[in-house]
Write a structure and sequence with these properties.
255 residues, alpha/beta, TIM Barrel, 12 helices, 8 strands, 42% helix, globular, binds phosphoenolpyruvate
């Protein structure tokens, strides 16, 4: 099986002003010094501070992600930021299909797919988020929802898909303090990997990282990361504090 290097992503959502973005870096980097070679770390600030963060992380191994991107290179799309522009800034990663984008801003499958295609074509590394709502889980729809969200991947070539990371983020666990148990996370991660194997290819499924996100904290990161198909964590609230995110990374790596 191909090696899947652990990946930890901080999604800061619409939080932190520029001074706080810059101040985070040295404190966090010192906290994770001993494990920085064992994993990849990506921080996702609001778009207006991407350049500041790129500058602040320049002499570190920390990478930077945008929280979304437009579905075209340029054009009449007020408020959007194209993947070409992100690349020009020096951004390599982008989070796409986050549950807040899907459910608060009503981004549908077609829009998320267009964003994904545009991001991949410009050479960004997308973190493609999927996850079910509470009522969908309660009514036994979890796998059907995930399958529907993954379906668009079939339209992309395997060569393009090499850039992809998937994040399973149950909507009911995001920002609620109620994380999925490690068994619940593993069950869905295994389902995603099987789907990738059946619909793309087995080497692709084995080499693709699947992250868990939803109320991850320092006291649950190690159990979640111990699961066979959990290759990393996407962290919102608990990533805002550099020491808290540092603990999540270290405990997740069992260090
Ligand atoms: C997220 O925003 O992707 C997330 C998982 O948030 P939280 O960790 O706060 O649940």
């Amino acid at each position: 099986m191909e090696q899947r290097k652990p990946l930890f992503i901080a999604n800061w959502k619409m939080n932190k002003l520029s001074k706080e973005v810059v101040a985070f870096v040295p404190i966090f980097y010192e906290a994770i010094q001993s494990v920085s070679q064992k994993c990849e770390i990506v921080l996702a600030p609001v778009a207006v501070y991407l350049s500041k963060l790129i500058e602040a992380t320049r002499s570190t191994s920390i990478q930077v992600a945008a929280q979304n991107c437009g579905g075209a290179k340029s054009g009449a799309f007020t408020g959007e930021i194209s993947p070409v522009m992100l690349k020009e800034l020096g951004v390599n990663w982008v989070i796409l299909g986050h549950s807040e984008r899907r459910h608060v801003f009503k981004e549908d499958e077609a829009l998320v797919s267009a964003r994904l295609k545009a991001a991949i074509e410009e050479g960004l590394l997308p973190v493609f988020c999927v996850g079910e709502k509470l009522e969908e889980r309660k009514s036994g729809q979890t796998f059907a929802v995930i399958e529907r969200q993954l379906k668009g991947l079939k339209e992309l070539s395997e060569n393009h898909l090499k850039a992809l990371t998937i994040a399973y983020e149950p909507v009911w666990a995001i920002g609620t303090g109620e994380n999925a148990t490690s068994a619940q996370a593993q069950e869905v991660h295994a389902f995603i990997r099987q789907w990738l194997s059946k619909n793309i290819s087995s080497p692709f499924a084995n080499g693709t990282r699947i992250l868990y996100g939803g109320s991850v904290k320092a006291d649950n990161s190690s159990q979640l990361m111990a699961m066979e198909d959990v290759d990393g964590l996407l962290v919102g609230g608990a990533s805002l504090d550099p020491l808290s995110f540092g603990e999540i990374v270290k405990k997740g790596l069992n260090s």
